[in-house]
Specification:
3 strands; 381 residues
């Protein structure tokens, strides 16, 4: 037993604060999902424990994937990145075939059967991070250069553009937004010229304008932005979700109504409460204190991930950790922000908390990558 927890052992070098915070978030999320679904017979098939048991299974599989990533190691995965990237793109393209299915307005899923489905865009976030990290860090880690050159940056951007272009065809603009932030975070962490970051931000603004003008967005996406710009617009129609979310959170007060005792939740007033709007359950039933604690735990995960990125022994590891930080930070901000009415509704899950197998697996794989960087860093770091 002493050898297991010796200072040079893998278990000793794990970031237990990161792991513990992620586990608590997943545990609290499971309770919130159960509260949101136990009375919804049209969703749980008459079994109040349906979503509870499936979410526990999702967390268990996600944790097992994290352990597997640590066992393999992020550096050994580096050699498999081309295969992982191609597989990810193939799965995204499969969504655009008859294999794809539309759920909640987004044609972004592959139904596997038995009540299970796969959302390839969640895993594409990981392959973009790993792929860009390999390209941007190869010459730097080899000692040939101090920073990625312009040609390498262009190659990395092209690599990220392929899955984003496919996802835009679905269309799943929420996932594209997250990927854009991931790319920006990676470029900043890689030491690439700031002109690339400024140029991408300008190109993003121009691209968003063109998407709006050319009518690429579906009507439900236009309605979401319209409701964000004008919260009073059609409160029983396009603005219903946001208005009900704010009512639920506001009704919780300081300490909340108690777990499983939320009237808005039990009354099923907030749509998609187990997935995109799970934070409303925390706001109503756990109150300002409980919801604040949830945000604090997410902050701890980001803090530990930033610490791992800062102490990583090579640029590849730094970029991987920084990409994960950008992913988690923006997605959490967007998810919580849309329930509060300060961000448009984008259909993004709250990391570790929302129900969903693909999203749960992806965030736990990311935790595995962070832990692998932590345990494999130089002793002097």
């Amino acid at each position: 037993m002493g050898k297991v927890f010796a200072r040079d052992s893998l278990l000793w070098r794990l970031d237990w604060i990161l792991l513990g915070s992620a586990l608590v978030l997943s545990a609290v999320g499971t309770l919130l999902v159960y509260s949101a679904t136990r009375g919804r017979t049209e969703l749980n098939h008459g079994d109040r424990y349906y979503f509870l048991l499936r979410n526990v299974l999702n967390v268990g599989i996600g944790f097992a994937l994290a352990v597997a990533v640590v066992a393999v190691g992020h550096r050994r995965l580096r050699g498999a990145v081309p295969v992982l990237y191609i597989t990810s793109v193939v799965l995204l393209l499969a969504v655009l075939t008859p294999l794809g299915s539309t759920i909640n307005g987004a044609h972004a899923w592959i139904v596997i059967g038995g009540g299970f489905s796969l959302q390839p865009s969640e895993f594409a976030k990981i392959t973009i991070i790993l792929g860009m990290a390999v390209l941007l860090a190869t010459k730097v880690d080899a000692g040939d250069r101090k920073h990625p050159d312009h040609r390498t940056v262009m190659q990395a951007l092209a690599l990220s553009a392929v899955p984003m272009a496919v996802i835009m065809l679905m269309p799943d603009m929420g996932s594209v937004m997250v990927m854009v932030v991931i790319v920006l975070g990676i470029l900043l962490a890689s030491g690439a010229s700031n002109r690339w970051v400024v140029g991408l931000i300008a190109a993003g603004g121009l691209g968003a304008t063109l998407i709006w003008k050319l009518g690429v967005l579906d009507q439900y996406q236009i309605d979401r932005f319209a409701a964000f710009a004008n919260p009073a617009l059609d409160p029983s129609g396009v603005g219903y979700n946001t208005n009900q979310a704010r009512i639920a959170i506001g009704s919780g007060g300081l300490l909340g109504k108690g777990l499983f005792h939320g009237s808005q939740t039990s009354g099923q007033f907030v749509p998609e409460q187990q997935t995109d709007f799970v934070f409303t359950v925390a706001g109503e039933e756990l109150g300002f204190v409980g919801a604040g604690a949830l945000i604090l735990l997410i902050g701890v995960v980001l803090w530990r991930a930033c610490r791992i990125a800062r102490n990583a022994g090579d640029l590849y590891s730094t970029i991987v950790a920084a990409g994960i930080v950008a992913w988690f930070a923006f997605q959490a901000f967007e998810n919580i922000g849309m329930t509060l009415g300060i961000m448009p509704v984008a259909g993004l899950p709250l990391p570790f908390v929302s129900y969903g197998g693909s999203s749960m697996f992806a965030v736990w794989i990311a935790v595995g990558l962070l832990q692998s960087i932590q345990v494999k860093k130089p002793v002097s770091a």
